[in-house]
Amino acid sequence: GLWGTTLTENTAENRELYVKTTLRELLVYIVFLVDICLLTYGMTSSNAYYYTKVMSELFLQTSSDGRVSFQSIGSMADFWVYAQGPLLDNLYWTKWYNNESLAAHGTQSYIYYENLLLGVPRMRQLKVKNNSCVVHDDFKEEISGCYDVYSEDKEERVSFGLINGTAWKYHSEEELGGSSHWGRLTSYSGGGYYIDLKLTREESAEALQVLKEKLWLDRGTRVVFIDFSVYNANINLFCVLRLVVEFPATGGAIPSWQIRTVKLIRYVSAWDFFIVACEIVFCVFIFYYVVEEILELRIHKLQYFTSIWNILDVVVILLSIVAIGFHIFRTIEVNRLLGELLKHPDTYADFEFLAFWQTQYNNMNAVNLFFAWIKIFKYISFNKTMTQLSSTLARCAKDILGFAIMFFIVFFAYAQLGYLLFGTQVENFSTFVKCIFTQFRIILGDFDYNSIDNANRVLGPIYFVTYVFFVFFVLLNMFLAIINDTYSEVKEELSSQKDELQLSDILKQSYNRTLMRLKLKKERISNVQKALQNGTKELDFEDFKNSLKELGHADHEITAAFSRFDKDGNHILDEEEQQQMKHELEEKRVKKGQENKPTVALNTEIENLGKSYGDNNLDENLTYVEARNNHTNKASWVSKEEFQVLLQRVLQLEQSINSIGSKIDAVVNKLDVLERNKLKRKDLSGKLL
Question: Where are its TM segments located (predicted)?
Answer without folding.
Answer: 26-51, 270-291, 311-329, 400-422, 462-483
